[in-house]
Amino acid sequence: MRPIYRIVVPFSILALHSCGATAKKSHSSTSAKADDSTAATNGYDAVLCGVSGWSDNSGYSFNADAWNPQGDGYQCLSIINASSPTDAGFDATWYWPDDPGNVHSFPHVTYPLTDLPSALSNITTLRLAAGWAMTPGSVSTARGLEKRAAFDLDGLEDIGATANVAFDMFLDEDPENSTNATLAGYEIMIWIGRVGTPYPLGYDSGNASCYTQQLGSFNFSLFTGLNSHNASVFTWVSTTDQLTFDEDISPLLQYLWRNDLVSADVLLGVIEFGSEAYYASGNVTFSAGQFAIDVLNGDPPNFSLDAIGKDCPKPKKSNAKAKARPAELSVVVVFAICTFVALSQGNGILF
Ligand SMILES: *[C@@H]1O[C@H](CO)[C@@H](O)[C@H](O)[C@H]1NC(C)=O
Ligand SMILES: *[C@@H]1O[C@H](CO)[C@@H](O)[C@H](O)[C@H]1NC(C)=O
Ligand SMILES: *[C@@H]1O[C@H](CO)[C@@H](O)[C@H](O)[C@H]1NC(C)=O
Ligand SMILES: *[C@@H]1O[C@H](CO)[C@@H](O)[C@H](O)[C@H]1NC(C)=O
Ligand SMILES: *[C@@H]1O[C@H](CO)[C@@H](O)[C@H](O)[C@H]1NC(C)=O
Ligand SMILES: *[C@@H]1O[C@H](CO)[C@@H](O)[C@H](O)[C@H]1NC(C)=O
Ligand SMILES: *[C@@H]1O[C@H](CO)[C@@H](O)[C@H](O)[C@H]1NC(C)=O
Ligand SMILES: *[C@@H]1O[C@H](CO)[C@@H](O)[C@H](O)[C@H]1NC(C)=O
Ligand SMILES: *[C@@H]1O[C@H](CO)[C@@H](O)[C@H](O)[C@H]1NC(C)=O
Predict the structure, then answer these.
(1) Which of 84, 97, 141, 286 has its CA 20 to 30 A from that of 131?
(2) d(CA 106, CA 173)
């Protein structure tokens, strides 16, 4: 295994996330429908394809969330040990050979939210855990969980795989909207892995080294932007791939409200973990498991937060839930930006 972090990236690829995440759609559909006969044959509890979801009310729920399918591409998500709070996991095999500039799916697990929604400033601890692997091909781990350990970066590079691995959280001032990813006014992502060169919204703002926070033994950089719902998106990007993650992430939340980027009383109502898949010229399997969540509400501790970088502007409060522009205008703007970026292919920039 070798480190994934790459310094110089083609400018065209930098646009991937901007042009992709801006189009993020609902991924909250839940139906128990699944191809159970196929699932049973392969040793899985359920197989979900397209945008279908699955939940047995035992805690975790799962969603294939292939919300932006393209051409010959496809994705299915197979659930293993579905009802086990400690051993649940999934394998999502996808193939997105077209439209490399956009996210096509976000196969994910949704964590149980017994003690949420909760105001950001009333979260004492928010421990999140997950483990993941990614390999080229269609890897089934239903009869051999040890296969899940693989992370074949060279093999993924051979097929041009582009994807991130991330926690995805949704928030809003309104308790009901805070529990719906489509209606929520704020989104906070924590990227713990990157394959290929996916980039977060706002990567090109020039302040990549301005807003950072150490968590555990890793450092995260903050990027901000607006998605197509005009929701404010805050993306914490780890500078190192973390194949297993088990941390109290509340310092990353605290950074946002103590620095006045998000109001302290905004409510956190959805927490997911998965992988935004952009492109691969062959099958890729993303596997995930070892999920855990612990929420403790009440007075937050006063974490020591990293100082804002030298010569960096003080962060400005985002203006979520502003009046959306007419849809056609946003489409034109996004199209123009993506076209500009496509034309700029070849210019490397430092990240
Ligand atoms: C998980 O699922 C696999 C395959 O169905 C099975 O062999 C294993 O016993 C399960 N583990 C637990 C802890 O249920
Ligand atoms: C979220 O809101 C959208 C738009 O109103 C709605 O279609 C969808 O059913 C809601 N999802 C859930 C899980 O309530
Ligand atoms: C919930 O979100 C929708 C869509 O943004 C918005 O129209 C509605 O006013 C919100 N509801 C509340 C109570 O904020
Ligand atoms: C994180 O940043 C701190 C402060 O700049 C540095 O001392 C530390 O080595 C970094 N850790 C990693 C894992 O990069
Ligand atoms: C890709 O995955 C699909 C679904 O698992 C499978 O049917 C197909 O044979 C795989 N293709 C290759 C080349 O492995
Ligand atoms: C903060 O959390 C505590 C502990 O769960 C709860 O009693 C209190 O009502 C919460 N405060 C607010 C403002 O939500
Ligand atoms: C948190 O601690 C810092 C220094 O460690 C201090 O400057 C700041 O005022 C404290 N904030 C609160 C709200 O207690
Ligand atoms: C980063 O810089 C841009 C201007 O280049 C600014 O609009 C944005 O607010 C900055 N980000 C933060 C978190 O302050
Ligand atoms: C989003 O909200 C901002 C802040 O008010 C506004 O200026 C902008 O026009 C909106 N953008 C879109 C695409 O709706």
Answers:
(1) 97
(2) 25
Ligand 3 centroid to 231 CA: how many Å? 12
Displacement of CA 74 from its chain's centroid (Å):
19
Longest distance between any two alpha carbons in the chain, whole Å: 60
CA 304 to ligand 7 center in whole angstroms: 8
8-350 sits in which CATH class? mainly beta
| Nearby residues of 190 by Cβ (< 8 Å), 6 or more positions away | 166, 167, 169, 220, 235, 236, 238, 249, 252
* Each residue's pLDDT tens digit, 274-293: 999 999 999 999 999 999 99
Of 194, 130, 189, whose CA–CA distance to 156 is shortest?
A: 194
Distance CA 78, CA 64 (A): 9
Q: Give the other-Cβ count within 10 Å of 255's Cβ.
A: 24
Domain boundaries, the chain: 8-350
165 strand-pairing partners: 193
Instruction: Tell which one of 29, 110, 180, 270 to mutate to probe ligand 2, the residue whose CB is within 8 A of the most ligand atoms.
Output: 180
pLDDT tens-digit readout, 104-159? 999 999 999 889 999 999 999 999 999 999 999 998 888 887 887 789 999 999 99
